[in-house]
Amino acid sequence: xxxxxxxxxxxxxxxxxxxxxxxxxxxxxxxxxxxxxxxxxxxxxxxxxxxxxxxxxxxxxxxxxxxxxxxxxxxxxxxxxxxxxxxxxxxxxxxxxxxxxxxxxxxxxxxxxxxxxxxxxxxxxxxxxxxxxxxxxxxxxxxxxxxxxxxxxxxxxxxxxxxxxxxxxxxxxxxxxxxxxxxxxxxxxxxxxxxxxxxxxxxxxxxxxxxxxxxxxxxxxxxxxxxxxxxxxxxxxxxxxxxxxxxxxxxxxxxxxxxxxxxxxxxxxxxxxxxxxxxxxxxxxxxxxxxxxxxxxxxxxxxxxxxxxxxxxxxxxxxxxxxxxxxxxxxxxxxxxx
Length: 338
Fold this sequence. Notes:
Blueprint: E1 3-4, H1 8-18, H2 32-44, H3 49-58, H4 70-79, H5 93-100, E2 115-116, H6 134-147, H7 159-173, H8 176-179, E3 180-181, E4 183-187, E5 190-193, E6 203-204, H9 221-234, H10 239-252, H11 267-282, E7 286-287, E8 292-293, E9 299-300, E10 304-306, H12 309-335
Parallel strand pairs: 2-3
Antiparallel strand pairs: 1-10, 4-5, 4-6, 7-10, 8-9
Helix pairs in contact: 1-9, 2-7, 2-10, 2-12, 3-12, 6-7, 7-12, 9-12, 10-12, 11-12
């Protein structure tokens, strides 16, 4: 395989795009701000009248895109909850109430799960899952939107907060590395990616964050997908042009929406299994022969990506962005059928 160790080529673009997000970990910034806004706008264009009315009420007239990174901004504030809010949350009583409420401190972990690649079913107590993962968070927020009450004992999430979180987490769960990750063992010629059946004996790579291809802060596989692969999906188009094309492609079936049957509470577990299956492709073209895993489970050394990594994975990025928007719209339309 012809490989390229990426350094300057992507570092400058990533640093520029991520500069405004520097205070938050890439592990919780699926798709970056542009990607989240794109997913929200794709969904907004497919809402029923009834759903659009409920959304407008709960968002107090704000657009879905404008609150699509609310959960990431909350995470920044949660680092220093006694300090001033980020500028994006200034004069935001919905955010202030969320940060002040006991029990919401684990919100940073609600953005992802670390399922093994190719997971076939979601087990809430299985490897890479847990009570604070993204499936549990989505189910909790969906219940709030359905009933108006937080189902968690002592929980205080209200519908306006729940909708903001749902808009964000549905996008998150479709970034493949927020659904699954590689489980690796040390081999004589570099790190070895274990198959599903052997994943439990490996060390997880934290959603690709441990797979580094350069020396820059964001030179890792996860950050590459958060930001750079959105640019690859846009292929020179403006976000609005991409949204228009995506909605048209979804309606014409050129991009499969992949909307799944079931009640709203059934959907997050189905979505994450689908994304975990897609995550396997993310690792194609990643050479880890120079990556080692030490006795402390730390990854050292640098991976290399194939020269055709962008073109090989462009369609997956396009599909996941479009599919996230379609599924978000389907969920909201199901919650408020009119």
